[in-house]
Write a structure and sequence with these properties.
Length: 99
């Protein structure tokens, strides 16, 4: 083999190696792009779930506050009725004592 043939073989080998490296880099970039896309999708899904959960909690909190107000009103009614019963019982006792 002469020098020209060897140089052509070596040059062809480097060209082939360059093509393989370029293909591997393109493959790696595609995989990284797909990974980034999956991560973005996962983040978007988590963000959506977080937002939905937060809205549900706001709804539940509002409902709980409404129920708490109703319970406070019922407690006040019970306290008032209890006081009226005590007053009635006290008046009955006084009436019974004076007889």
């Amino acid at each position: 083999m002469n020098e020209g043939t060897i140089a052509a073989i070596v040059g062809g080998g480097f060209a082939l190696l360059n093509i393989v490296v370029s293909a591997l880099n393109a493959y790696r970039a595609t995989r990284q792009g797909a990974q980034i896309k999956r991560e973005e999708t996962s983040f978007e899904q988590l963000s959506k779930i977080y937002t939905e959960t937060r809205e549900e909690l706001k709804t539940y909190s509002a409902e709980a506050r409404e129920k708490d107000v109703l319970l406070d009103k019922k407690d006040a009614e019970i306290d008032e009725l209890t006081e009226r019963i005590r007053e009635f019982e006290a008046s009955q006792t006084k009436t019974g004592e004076t007889r």
